[in-house]
Amino acid sequence: MSANESHTTAQLRELQRLVAGGDEAAFTQLYLHYGKKLIQFAVSLIRSREIAEELVEDVFVKLWSNRERIREIDNLTVYLYVSVKNKALNALSSKAHELIAAPFDYLDTVMDEFAPDPYNLMITVEMMTRMREAIESLPPRCKLIFKLVREDGLKYKEVAEILNISVNTIDVQMAIAVKKICTSLHIQKDTPILHQVLPPSKKKS
Fold it and tell me: Which helix (H) or strand (E) holds 9?
């Protein structure tokens, strides 16, 4: 498997087992799988890529230092995102801590180009541009939730645990995001093209 390919839950479990045994190659695979997404998540919280990279590295250093216990982690994805969030909060001033810990209403979430080449999807560049503009104009908390679900591929329950909010809140915010994107693209929510433009969500736990 290529380092850039996604890992299934079973494969991640196997990597955890190997890391627990001191396998450095398996640890590298974990970093390549999570690193970029975690750094972007951290940037959304602290608005400094340099600090974000440092704290993500710190999280992985700690993970390696305590590798014998990695098999005890039930959901490694939630564990890593929460660890990064906690480190980001510790790196902020008390005022910023209040800002991040409560509403997530003033965050500048970094979005990836999460859709493949528009020509491969048989959609126009103009449509991709409108969709990108719609996402960028989402309210900050809505944008962060949308990113974690649609771009990072997290389940609603996982996002709820990471951000310490209810699954119902995730559901509402995702509905707002999809509605705004559909309005921008002048399409209906059940239009097939929407499923080409937006990867499917992972609502179930």
Answer: helix 9-20
Asked whether the beta carbons of 113 and 192 are under 8 A apart, the reply is no
Q: Which two tokens stand for residue 166?
A: 């209810």
Residue whose token pair is 């390549």:
32
Class in CATH terms, 9-101: mainly alpha
Looking at per-residue pLDDT, the higher value among 131 and 26 belongs to 26
pLDDT digits (tens, 9 = 90+) for 121-155: 555 667 777 778 888 888 889 999 999 998 899 99
| 199: DSSP letter | P
Residue 171: burial class (beta carbons within 10 Å; 0-12, 13-18, 19+): middle
CATH of domain 125-197: 1.10.10.10
Query: CA-to-CA distance for 116 and 201, rounded, in angstroms?
Result: 16
Domains of the chain: which residue ranges?
9-101, 125-197
Are 34 and 3 a contacting pair, CB within 8 Å? no
Query: CB-based contacts of 183: which residues, under 8 Å, 6+ apart?
Result: 134
CB atoms within 10 A of CB 120: 9
For 193-204, b/e burial (b = at least 16 CB within 10 A) is: ebebbbeebbee
Give residue for tokens 């970093």.
Answer: 31
Residue owning tokens 């810990």: 101
